[in-house]
Amino acid sequence: MNDMFALASTTTFAQEIKRSRFLAVAGPVSYVQAAKNFITANSSAEANHNCWAWRIGQDYRFSDDGEPSGTAGKPILLAIDGQELDGVAVVVTRWFGGVLLGSGGLIRAYGGTAALCLQAAEKTKIVATISTSIDIQFSDLALVKARLNALAEVSIDGEHYTASGAILDLRIAAVAADTVIRTVTDLTSGRAVVKSEP
């Protein structure tokens, strides 16, 4: 499987093509309503067209917003997919300049503006993680927490005390999960109880 990437922040890119002005705005979105909100917030009522696309995992949508079918939304989605991005929405707004671009010109203009915007954006690699909790006795707690905090592949998302120790809620990079669990088991001589979550 190829690595996937997310946008670190919202990015814009503008260009003029045959007197039409194109403005692309791309930003990170994590759920469908966030994508819809992003599109609404970054569409211009004064523009002729606000074409857009978004992808969140297997979900995606796109719109030509009055441009000929297939000439705007789909090329924007292809720009997103071409750069292996996930959790992203892109709006490309067009102010018509009086010169018709034709279908091929529109595809290049919308897809190209989106692609240049996305190429300029700062990206972060998406790392698959698993969530788990570990029940640790007080005698092992300080050592285990120190070791886990030193690992880049682990984040401690929560800590709940029990009568005999604490339960640590962990998020672990999937590729390192087995090694991390083995480390905790070794550090505690098998006393830690690991509870994996789906």
What does it look like?
The chain has 5 helices and 11 strands; from the N terminus they run βββαββαβαββαββαβ. With 198 residues, it is α+β, with helices and mostly antiparallel strands. The strands form 3 sheets. Strands 2-3-6-4-5 form a 5-stranded antiparallel sheet, sandwiched between helices. It has a 4-stranded antiparallel sheet with strand order 9-10-8-11. A hairpin with a 3-residue loop joins β9 and β10. α2 packs parallel to α3 (102-120).
Please outline what is shown here.
The protein has 198 residues and is an alpha+beta fold. The chain has 2 domains: 5-125, Impact, N-terminal domain (Ribosomal Protein S5, domain 2), CATH 3.30.230; 129-196, Alpha-Beta Plaits (2-Layer Sandwich).
Tell me the name of the CATH class of the largest domain.
Answer: Alpha Beta
- CATH architectural grouping of the largest domain: 2-Layer Sandwich
The third-level CATH topology of the largest domain is Ribosomal Protein S5, domain 2
Radius of gyration: 23 Å
Instruction: Determine the strand fraction and express it as a percent band.
Output: 35-45%
Biggest sheet architecture: 5 strands, antiparallel
N-to-C CA distance: 21 Å
**Average pLDDT, all residues:** 91
Descriptive tags:
single chain; 198 residues; alpha+beta; Ribosomal Protein S5, domain 2; Alpha-Beta Plaits; 2 domains; five-stranded antiparallel β-sheet; four-stranded antiparallel β-sheet; 5 helices; 11 strands; rod-shaped; Impact; UPF0029_Impact_CS; Impact_N
